[in-house]
Amino acid sequence: MCGIAGEICYGDRRADTEAIRRMLPCLESRGPDGAGLWDGGRITFGHRRLKIIDLSEAGAQPMTDEQLRLTVVFNGCIYNYRQLRDELIGYGYTFFSTSDTEVILKAYHRWGADCVTRFLGMFAFAVAEHDTGTVTLARDRLGIKPMYLAESPGRLRFASTLPALLAAGGVDTGIDKVALHHYMTFHSVVPAPRTILAGVRKLPPATVRVIRADGTSSERVYWEARFERTLDETDWTAAVRAKLRQAVERRMVADVPVGVLLSGGLDSSLIVALLAERGQAGLTTFSIGFDSGGGESGDEFEYSDLVAKQFGTEHHQIRIGQDRFLPAVQRTVAAMSEPMVSHDCIAFNLLSEDVAKHVKVVQSGQGADEIFAGYSWYPPLADVPRDQAVAAYAGEFFDRPHHDLARQLNPEWLPDGDVSRDFVAASFARPGATTAVDAALRLDSQVMLVDDPVKRVDNMTMAFGLEARVPFLDHELVEIAAACPPELKLARDGKGVLKDAARGLVPDEVIDRPKGYFPVPGIRHLEGPVLDLVRDALHAPAARDRALFRPEYVDALLADPNTPRTTLGANQLWQLALLEMWLQQL
């Protein structure tokens, strides 16, 4: 897990090495253990290192193999790197390190861009061929590791974070109107390749982009789960349990200790149970809780304590009072590569700050709800005819319909038509998803999952040099979940097949509890100093000059800050303020 950056120029133009140097300080938190830069003339790569595998200098990046004439920068972890290394040795390759980074170099030389299909893990990388000038960019199947792009005539820059690209300079920071529509509709999610800024794009998940020396390029998607009954499984529960057990075991690979973020919900508790079953000694777990507010409890320690006690973990219960909460709000916004409205961001930021004092790697339960149908908007789609699925999904999930948004945004910021609904319609129309539930799960796992919970965890953990691994997003487990009949996933109030797989491993009290969430009352119910921050952001000169929102809409929300909610119950005022706070700290 690291931070990567680079510039690729076309023709005879040399890369701006100083621009890459300006980017690296923005990536220091992602890689506090070292820095490196490679100047290849018209290609320059930069890297910030977090030492997880091969802690020696042999694993440093950018990594060059002079014999193969290749250089790579890589962020992530290849969990099957040892097996691939043995295979490559069988083909005659020799290794100068024990790192997974070097395995990528050799695998690329052996199999070309198709090497991505052999990797089990999370990754974003760039490989430069010295002799041809070709650069290959790649991102993992579920988009766990980020890659942001800024393209201008004659060059392309990439980085692990959006702010790093801005530090290099020359980026159009105007607002993308289509992305703004998505942000206000999809619960702050902006689907790839767009971002909220017109001059920044992101490489989509499961995508390889090959850029030739003359600037021409090609892009392909190399993986997609099929939400059809393509597997002949007689025991889905056993299949899910076996794949999850394998996924958790894969993510134990490290040369440093691995802990678990234990919320007390089913997903993280099941990870703890499987690690304990595997015999991991000295397992360390972490839970967080906040002061109550607005009539809501701020913690779920009852359940996390139960799990920690049953499995004998070294458990850390982190309690957050107002003295730490308020400073964390602005710090969390600054850690976002894109504006993310979820109040969970602050929880993960504070949790990561404390966890990083104990371990460098954690496993986390993100992704289970999106692949096993754990959210409230899936059951209403169960009996919806396939040709009515778009309207049903929009009614359940969209923050607001287009006609409401037209009364909330100033007219100049409205794109032509309901672009968010059009995006959903295009996704639902593609083959490979049998039912309305299948189509919703496919869209959510490819878009919402990537650009909300997964990005949230990556941004907040990496703000403190902490690597988060997500076993529920092992692509083989995702394939099993996609093929599983929707009725098995919807059973028992959601995630039925996963609950069945957990039975006998996790305490029944955790399996049968009502669905929980990461409670952060201070954001769900805005008052006091946090409300003052919100008001200041929306009244700031920059906000007035930008004029995204109609003044009457902003005034109405500020007059009644906690009543207007989105379809899914999020605070509408926080959604507006978060966007402005993020834009103002660029």
TrEMBL record:
<dbReference type="InterPro" id="IPR017932">
    <property type="entry name" value="GATase_2_dom"/>
</dbReference>
<dbReference type="InterPro" id="IPR051786">
    <property type="entry name" value="ASN_synthetase/amidase"/>
</dbReference>
<keyword id="KW-0061">Asparagine biosynthesis</keyword>
<feature type="domain" description="Glutamine amidotransferase type-2">
    <location>
        <begin position="2"/>
        <end position="214"/>
    </location>
</feature>
<comment type="similarity">
    <text>Belongs to the asparagine synthetase family.</text>
</comment>
<keyword id="KW-0067">ATP-binding</keyword>
<protein>
    <recommendedName>
        <fullName>asparagine synthase (glutamine-hydrolyzing)</fullName>
        <ecNumber>6.3.5.4</ecNumber>
    </recommendedName>
</protein>
<dbReference type="InterPro" id="IPR033738">
    <property type="entry name" value="AsnB_N"/>
</dbReference>
<dbReference type="InterPro" id="IPR001962">
    <property type="entry name" value="Asn_synthase"/>
</dbReference>
<keyword id="KW-0547">Nucleotide-binding</keyword>
<dbReference type="Pfam" id="PF13537">
    <property type="entry name" value="GATase_7"/>
</dbReference>
<dbReference type="Pfam" id="PF00733">
    <property type="entry name" value="Asn_synthase"/>
</dbReference>
<dbReference type="InterPro" id="IPR006426">
    <property type="entry name" value="Asn_synth_AEB"/>
</dbReference>
<comment type="pathway">
    <text>Amino-acid biosynthesis; L-asparagine biosynthesis; L-asparagine from L-aspartate (L-Gln route): step 1/1.</text>
</comment>
<keyword id="KW-0315">Glutamine amidotransferase</keyword>
<dbReference type="InterPro" id="IPR029055">
    <property type="entry name" value="Ntn_hydrolases_N"/>
</dbReference>
<keyword id="KW-0028">Amino-acid biosynthesis</keyword>
<dbReference type="InterPro" id="IPR014729">
    <property type="entry name" value="Rossmann-like_a/b/a_fold"/>
</dbReference>
<dbReference type="InterPro" id="IPR017535">
    <property type="entry name" value="Asparagine_synth"/>
</dbReference>
